[in-house]
Amino acid sequence: MKPSRPPSWSLVVPLKPLARAKSRLAPVVPDRLRPGLALAFAQDTVAAALACGAVRDVVVVTDDTAAGDALAELGARIVPDVPADGLNAALAYGARTVRATRPTAAVAALNADLPALRPAELQQVLSRAAEFPRAFLTDAAGIGTTFLSAAPEVELRPSFGGPSRMRHILSGAEELLLELVDSVRQDVDTGDDLRAAFALGAGPYTAALRGSLPVGPGTPVRQPQL
User: Fold this and answer.
1) Residue 106 lies inside a defined structural domain of this protein
2) Which residues in the chain show pLDDT less than 70?
3) Of 65, 95, 151, 191, most Cβ neighbours within 10 A?
């Protein structure tokens, strides 16, 4: 029997201060609930990522102390958002932080709002991404990006935000056309996204808040298969 390969990927997860997170959910989630919901998304994302066999570690770039403490308890490494210049600067800084100690690390950026993330599906994405210098996965809407990878010694060059799918294509990153990885694509920005995440099976932190969220009757909730 061949020995199992050690985890190789370092994932960089950006998280803005919780008080400013998920503003687009305002029409369906009250202001008082959004910070806790954003944290739950991040907790489910980080927990699932750390449960993926291909993941060596997860670096969360955030200036939110409470979120940092909660995610550190799950095993994430927390680094401050030193650039303080938006999402892509934070991701690039996180990748540089990883490679400051592991220069040949394979790194990937992953959204913090993937509450239905399943380790097995993330494993599929990482396995396929390993075949390319840079690769990305578009979001469920087919417009944005939830995942971007860079092979060892390749610069990440993130261009997240808005219609980022086309920007990543134009940057030369390979689009990963994979089936059955919906949990890696389903980020949450709107009420419809939230309903879709619950339909896929939200993780335990997000599922615990289900009863207080007006996301519509009859939405099935189940624990994701790890």
Assistant:
1) yes
2) 1-7, 215-226
3) 95
